[in-house]
Amino acid sequence: MPVVTITLIKGYADEVKTGLAERLTDAVRASIAAPLDGITVQINEVAPSGYMRGRTARKPGAPVPDAAAVVRDFLAAMEARDLNKAKNMLADDFTMIFPGTAPMRELDELIAWAKDRYAHVAKSYERFDVAPGADGVAVYCFGTLHGEWLDGRAFEGIRFIDRFTVADGKIHDQRVWNDIGETMLSEARGST
Amino acid sequence: MPVVTITLIKGYADEVKTGLAERLTDAVRASIAAPLDGITVQINEVAPSGYMRGRTARKPGAPVPDAAAVVRDFLAAMEARDLNKAKNMLADDFTMIFPGTAPMRELDELIAWAKDRYAHVAKSYERFDVAPGADGVAVYCFGTLHGEWLDGRAFEGIRFIDRFTVADGKIHDQRVWNDIGETMLSEARGST
Amino acid sequence: MPVVTITLIKGYADEVKTGLAERLTDAVRASIAAPLDGITVQINEVAPSGYMRGRTARKPGAPVPDAAAVVRDFLAAMEARDLNKAKNMLADDFTMIFPGTAPMRELDELIAWAKDRYAHVAKSYERFDVAPGADGVAVYCFGTLHGEWLDGRAFEGIRFIDRFTVADGKIHDQRVWNDIGETMLSEARGST
Amino acid sequence: MPVVTITLIKGYADEVKTGLAERLTDAVRASIAAPLDGITVQINEVAPSGYMRGRTARKPGAPVPDAAAVVRDFLAAMEARDLNKAKNMLADDFTMIFPGTAPMRELDELIAWAKDRYAHVAKSYERFDVAPGADGVAVYCFGTLHGEWLDGRAFEGIRFIDRFTVADGKIHDQRVWNDIGETMLSEARGST
Amino acid sequence: MPVVTITLIKGYADEVKTGLAERLTDAVRASIAAPLDGITVQINEVAPSGYMRGRTARKPGAPVPDAAAVVRDFLAAMEARDLNKAKNMLADDFTMIFPGTAPMRELDELIAWAKDRYAHVAKSYERFDVAPGADGVAVYCFGTLHGEWLDGRAFEGIRFIDRFTVADGKIHDQRVWNDIGETMLSEARGST
Amino acid sequence: MPVVTITLIKGYADEVKTGLAERLTDAVRASIAAPLDGITVQINEVAPSGYMRGRTARKPGAPVPDAAAVVRDFLAAMEARDLNKAKNMLADDFTMIFPGTAPMRELDELIAWAKDRYAHVAKSYERFDVAPGADGVAVYCFGTLHGEWLDGRAFEGIRFIDRFTVADGKIHDQRVWNDIGETMLSEARGST
Predict the structure, then answer these.
(1) Separation of alpha carbons A17 and A15, rounded Å
(2) What is the pLDDT of residues A144-186, one digit of tens each?
(3) Chain C closest CA to D163's CA: distance in Å?
(4) Residues E138, E124: contact at Cβ < 8 Å?
(5) C: neighbours with 3+ CB pairs under 8 Å?
(6) So what's the ipTM on this one?
């Protein structure tokens, strides 16, 4: 049922407007059980000279980089071991926590720590979720890990989930949970 | 900079309107780097006789129960072992996956499975995140577990994360990841 | 697709607003092949102190009596031979033309003329159409006549159409066409 | 007094917008006795990327061919006996009823029937009225017939009225009433 | 031609809304040569829960005391020599300049200075003008002075003009010009 | 807090829109004590075919020449003694009143009158104020005069104020007050 109208200064790319309209639709649906077909979003675009706040002309805010896309790029760079690219995507206050680790600040620490865990690993993604928040956007992704243990055996289907905080196009925080410990424990018990 | 105007049929409670306005604000912020103070949301309320779609008067959609509140209630009922209350909050197609388990459909299965894991457990929450989506709302919460192992030793500070799908006020899906396996493994190794 | 928003001064009855919203919907449909469910009408109501035109507060225009209802009332009064009521519904410049008559200004002329046509007559309505125009509203109704000829024979199923001009709740003009002449002619020929 | 604002996706021709604005004005005037100069219509045009309903971008509905123009074209084609053109303007379910005829589906039937009525006939139009409706637009036109009887005598000034149903630019229905029977009857009587 | 719509949080008194609508009308007229009757102002009022800026509910700004009324009250208090009332209307940084005086800060200074000018004086107002500005509102009034000179002769018709700066309901500045000097000079010359 | 939206027919220059937005902001601030940063003005621009009032397309009103700029041009022309230019800026009903003069209608009268007052004079402006009104715009300017008396002595710092009425880009009225009389009187007394 509801009609949402938003006024922007002209000049945003179509995909920015589409993303905005989708997010506004989702925001309505998270609040009111309206039939999807009854939710209309209209974007009015005014000339720069047609907008004033506080008796002052304003510049349109820059489009926010799509947080999920930022995370996908980072994950791809990490998987390709393109550490320079990955480091450039991190905010200065970046921290990460993996299962059983203390908070780490450098990707190199992570690489070093992982060397004792597996020969190599890659992720299959089931889904990305994006949770807007007052202090940035939380991006979640989950799915399964596959790769090779240190002893050369292959593994696959191990569940994982990552949570990232993205603000201003940079990654501030990564937290990882997975079933590797559970799997190893189960193997350890099985092999007893 | 942007001004968002939404038209609703009169009659929503203040907290529904406040939640809606916050979600619309967040939707804008996830799209455009506008200064927070420049994002205005206005809710126009029209009489039921002042709204028509498809040449037909419409009833306002019911407020969507706050998905995070639904999840909090469910987690509290589970912690209090109020299984009747918890079951009432589940959709018919409910499934849950815990570390190392196959998908389960009944809370009793979960209780039975947990009996072999620990004597009791409780959660300390660091944060709830809400990700609106086209097919329902994903609610994430994470923090640490504390409780008692089967051998009577206490534990605490074990990281966990839960993901719920909520639609129409019901929980359709719960997925859990945590560091219990990692912790046990580490203990097992330490005790070797 | 289109969203129509109209601002009125508060105080119109629900049926006035409903009628207005239906007419606005029809106006859109007569212009653009939008799916019916995509046409939304919203009526914003402002306080009398919230409306000013030409630096002057305005009184809301009176609701226009539904033109089709005015015509129905007139036709019912005529059928019941309640001539006083019917006369009160006519504008000062009222004229009417029936098949084969010159323009008449008085209902009594009509009654006198009809006496030579049939003993009595009544209308069965198939449909009323309303055509808004710059100088008033044209109301059309059509269907069939039934009644009794002067010689006592019954008739039925004779097609008719009436056209009325309604402005300010008064009827200014009635024009009538029907197949009575055709029927009589056919009977005359048949009886030859 | 009222201000009507309608939001369209950009790209309609000026005459479509003008027709829409006139129809919206008429819809208001048929509802509220506002002074004509107090009725304002504003058409907001948004980019295709600035409109979303049901979380889906939409294509603007095609302009509806002006129903009165469709009817005028059809009448002109019939008068010029351009039957191919006229037939192309008819919907598959087209029917027509003339005074004293059963419903006909083919223009050829009409031509055949008319041959016994007059040598030729043409229409002088006094007015076209357009009545938007939920299931199409009714177009009325009325005026007088002139032409030549089968015996070579000229006639003129015989009242007629036509009613057409137009939907999706096609004519679905034509109904005709006129005073030809009345006129013949009157002549027959006069000649007695 | 233009339509101005302003959205306010509900609760302003009618005269505040009327004053606002008049000022908005004047602002348009000072910018565009639209016919007065074509300028419409609409005030949408939303519930307090229907307004949010910067993700925060807001309180409606207090009505600004009408600056011309503030000045009229001050002038009436001065004319009635109700100095307490008049002093309460002054801002802390108040200054005033009269013909031939240095800036004064205290009303008592003014009274003392005037004693040497005339026995008493009063103002007849021709007009008040209000000039909104970025740093407060300038109120002008002009007309003529009448009263009695120190020697007991009456005077009248001496032109004056006052300019006040009003902000937050307080008077910050008064500047006075008049023809008293001119008049005296003329008398002095005439009496030569 | 308030959001002002104004709809204009497309085509105004940026500076017209900026001036309009500033005046609308000032109109709000003169009415409601909203924080400046909370006042937003949005100018919707519709195509000429997207605006209709009274069922008639309208031409956009011409931009109103900035009244303060008109007055500044006039004052500059007068100071440069470009009387032709200055006369062209006057409305037919122009009148002016200077200290001690009767109303004058011709600039030549003024020049003649001034000849007996000073050899030459020029103005230093402290401020221009603009007061929109129902019957035109009042422009005020004040500051100090400097120049040379008839006897060759220089003068400066003599306070003045001018009030102009501007409508349709023409000056209808000038009223002048200043301290010249006061100054002369003071000199006359001092020289006694």
Answers:
(1) 5
(2) 999 999 999 999 999 999 999 999 889 999 999 999 999 988 8
(3) 10
(4) no
(5) A, B, D, E
(6) 0.89
